[in-house]
Design a protein that fits this description.
Type 1 dockerin domain, mainly alpha, 118 residues
Length: 118
């Protein structure tokens, strides 16, 4: 994030470039699409395999709570599957990303993933 002092100086943006306008939530690789690549990246952040840049964090934090966790992964998958069926999303994640331990993570957050709410 930019300093409040420097943003008032005319040469500042000439030197560092203009900030990005908008970040599309869920588009973590900034290709303009929501796809499985975005899921893989967010899963990797949640599992601690890599650390997101500030912009990647902003794009991956789907519920904008300042934390990257299983809830953000679920939201990205929901967009791609075109569904709000949590049970379906959890089953998809268990099949494709078993190392994420989706059910266990949701239960720790006291979220009943068995409900169908499509």
């Amino acid at each position: 994030m930019y300093s409040r002092i420097y943003t008032r100086l005319p040469w500042f943006f000439d030197y560092i470039g203009e900030p990005e306008d908008d970040i599309l939530l869920g588009d973590v690789n900034f290709d303009g699409l929501h796809n499985v690549t975005d899921i893989v990246i967010v899963v990797n952040f949640v599992l601690g395999g890599s650390t997101p840049s500030d912009d990647e964090f902003t794009a991956a934090d789907m519920n904008e709570d300042g934390i990257l966790n299983i809830l953000d992964v679920v939201e990205v998958v929901n967009i791609i599957l075109g569904s709000n069926d949590l049970a379906r999303t959890v089953e998809w994640l268990d099949k494709n990303f078993p190392e994420l331990e989706t059910k266990k993570r949701l239960e720790r957050l006291n979220i009943d993933w068995r409900k169908k709410n499509d």
